[in-house]
Design a protein that fits this description.
By secondary structure, the chain is of the alpha/beta class. The protein has a six-stranded mixed beta sheet with strand order 6-7-8-3-9-10, sandwiched between helices. Strand 1 and strand 2 form a beta hairpin. The protein has a single domain, classed as Rossmann fold, CATH 3.40.50. The protein starts with a helix and ends with a strand. It contains eight helices and ten strands. It is globular and about 50 Å long.
């Protein structure tokens, strides 16, 4: 799918309750003179169906913000609410359920299982949820078609290009129909042309799957495809 086609499909965000609410969140690593203030009193609201791009220099706090939103880290102050769940108060069982049922992640390191085929990699989350084989296979086929890899279902990651591997990773992230997709530099290991294709794909799948997305990137193409661009500088939200 071309970037132009994806851009034409941009839609207005829903006016319902926020999918993501970051409320006066701070996160510090270390203490004393060695303390690193990764987030400083950050507040952010993301509506359902919205694609928000997070930008900022390395060390600005982007990954920390993604991690507290996705339940991989906890804030020292403030609260994070995702899909009505206060993530910052969830216990381990609640966090597991959040990452299984609500939030999925896409990273610049694809994280595919080398010995599994593309279809088997995409199907892993569905197997963990004990989805019946027929339903699982139908969902996997749909997602591989959606990311343009319907003809590569039986190939292993080592037989695919970097861009194709990232497409598989995106399909896997969508397997359980997450409400929120969190992506950290998803084109960081790809050449510029492949990165443009992946960015357009993310825009398209967000709309097709009706998913909310928070994407950290340096790529200006992704910024042009976003509903909104949020900028962090030294842990402070400087532009929304």
């Amino acid at each position: 799918m071309s970037v132009e086609t994806a851009q034409q499909g941009k839609h207005a965000a829903s006016t319902s309750e926020p999918m993501v609410l970051v409320d006066h969140v701070s996160r510090t690593y270390g203490s004393g003179d060695a303390a690193v203030h990764a987030l400083r009193d950050v507040s952010l609201s993301i509506s359902p169906g919205e694609l928000v791009v997070l930008v900022g220099r390395s060390g600005s706090g982007k990954t920390t913000l993604l991690n507290v939103v996705g339940g991989l880290d906890r804030p020292d102050e403030g609260r994070v609410v995702v899909d009505g769940r206060e993530v910052s108060r969830l216990g381990e069982r609640g966090l597991v359920a959040l990452r299984r049922d609500v939030v999925s992640f896409v990273f610049q390191t694809f994280g595919l299982v080398p010995v599994l085929s593309a279809a088997e990699n995409v199907g892993v989350p569905l197997r963990l949820r004990k989805v019946p084989p027929k339903v699982r296979d139908e969902r996997v086929a749909l997602l591989l078609d959606l990311v343009g890899l319907g003809g590569h279902a039986n190939q292993r990651p080592g037989e695919l290009s970097g861009g194709q591997q990232q497409r598989v990773a995106i399909a896997r992230a969508l397997a359980n129909s997450p409400r929120l997709l969190v992506a950290d530099e998803p084109t960081g290991q790809l050449d510029s042309a492949t990165g443009v294709a992946i960015m357009g794909l993310l825009r398209a799948v967000v709309e097709h799957e009706r998913t909310t997305a928070l994407v950290a990137t340096h790529d200006p193409v992704m910024m042009s495809l976003a509903d909104r661009v949020v900028r962090l500088q030294d842990g402070v939200l400087t532009q929304d």
